[in-house]
């Protein structure tokens, strides 16, 4: 994981494995892998790397690989190395061009951290490796050459699996920026066929700074539909989720924003005729005049 922060994503992955794959503890080699090289994280902040290591230790991972490293610099972690990348990298930031790895600059000429991290994750994955990355919504439709180049890379050179739009406020109180999750598989040979889109409207918590729990929560439905993707092809564009063929995305300049493809169902409202409305106004006018007449008689 790049920009590991406090290792929240790694802890969640570790807890998922414990809950859903208890059989892994019966194998000594798998246990050793779990407690050693299974989890890797990098952060440029030494204090943050220490916090991440402690967090993993407190959650039962004995020897996680958490290192202080500037992932975007010349000494970035090795290419073609990992089978799974989970990341919520910093966004809305810019770097000096001189500090960015020349290898990354060959792929995309930009100073924007959110684009550089996406390209880095592609480089770090082995072929067949998968990634789930949170990005600011601007990555999906930005008009700069760099934005288009990164989206084109995901769609044409690899396999973009899904775009999951998150509600604004998901990451409050830290940021109110609208975000999305990109799910993709590194292939180095294309493979994007249909891209699955889902519009998350509620995530189980209020979307204000307090983020208190509520009943409305689309996340279980996201998982259920993701696990039954074959059934998604028949969904209408007016639904909460739907698929878009690669050709349509290419025709739309590789725009990956959900609203570009979603269709809004407009209900037909039956309006009364103007004559009917005027007749009703006439009746009301007569009623008002009658009331005023009675009021004057009472006051006389």
UniProtKB/TrEMBL annotation:
**Enzyme Commission number(s) of this protein:** 2.1.1.72
A GO BP term here is: methylation
Reaction catalyzed: a 2'-deoxyadenosine in DNA + S-adenosyl-L-methionine = an N(6)-methyl-2'-deoxyadenosine in DNA + S-adenosyl-L-homocysteine + H(+)
Give the Pfam families listed for this entry: N6_Mtase
Domain of life, per lineage: Bacteria
**Class of enzymatic activity (EC top level):** transferase
Q: Which UniProt keywords apply?
A: Methyltransferase, Restriction system, S-adenosyl-L-methionine, Transferase
Q: Which residues form the DNA methylase adenine-specific domain?
A: 3-265
Where would you find the membrane-spanning parts of this chain?
Answer: none
Does ATP-binding count among this protein's keywords?
no
Which Gene3D superfamilies does the record associate with it? Vaccinia Virus protein VP39 (3.40.50.150)
Q: Which GO terms describe its molecular function?
A: DNA binding; N-methyltransferase activity; site-specific DNA-methyltransferase (adenine-specific) activity
- Give the SUPFAM superfamilies listed for this entry: S-adenosyl-L-methionine-dependent methyltransferases
What is this protein called in UniProt? site-specific DNA-methyltransferase (adenine-specific)
Q: Which organism is it from?
A: Microbacterium limosum
């Amino acid at each position: 994981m790049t920009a590991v922060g406090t290792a929240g994503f790694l802890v969640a992955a570790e807890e998922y494995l414990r809950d859903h794959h208890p059989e892994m503890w019966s194998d000594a080699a798998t246990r050793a892998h779990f407690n050693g090289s299974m989890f890797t994280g990098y952060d440029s902040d030494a204090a943050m790397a220490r916090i991440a290591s402690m967090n993993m230790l407190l959650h039962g991972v004995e020897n996680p690989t958490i290192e202080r490293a500037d992932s975007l610099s010349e000494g970035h972690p090795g290419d073609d190395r990992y089978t799974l990348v989970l990341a919520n990298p910093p966004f809305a930031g810019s770097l000096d061009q001189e500090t960015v790895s020349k290898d990354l600059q060959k792929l995309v000429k930009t100073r924007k951290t959110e684009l550089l991290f996406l390209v880095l994750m592609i480089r770090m994955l082995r072929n067949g490796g998968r990634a789930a990355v949170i990005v600011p919504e601007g990555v999906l439709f930005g008009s700069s050459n760099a934005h288009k180049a990164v989206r084109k890379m995901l769609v044409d050179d690899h396999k973009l699996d899904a775009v999951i739009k998150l509600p604004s406020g998901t990451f409050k109180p830290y940021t109110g920026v609208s975000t999305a999750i990109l799910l993709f598989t590194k292939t180095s040979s294309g493979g994007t066929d249909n891209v699955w889109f889902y519009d998350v409207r509620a995530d189980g918590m209020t979307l204000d700074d307090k983020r208190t729990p509520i009943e409305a929560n689309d996340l279980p439905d996201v998982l259920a539909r993701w696990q039954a993707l074959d059934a998604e092809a028949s969904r209408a564009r007016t639904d909460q989720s739907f698929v878009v063929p690669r050709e349509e995305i290419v025709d739309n300049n590789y725009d990956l924003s959900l609203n570009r493809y979603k269709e809004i169902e407009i209900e037909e409202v039956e309006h009364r005729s103007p004559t009917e409305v005027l007749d009703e106004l006439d009746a009301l006018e007569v009623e008002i005049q009658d009331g005023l007449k009675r009021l004057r008689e009472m006051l006389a």
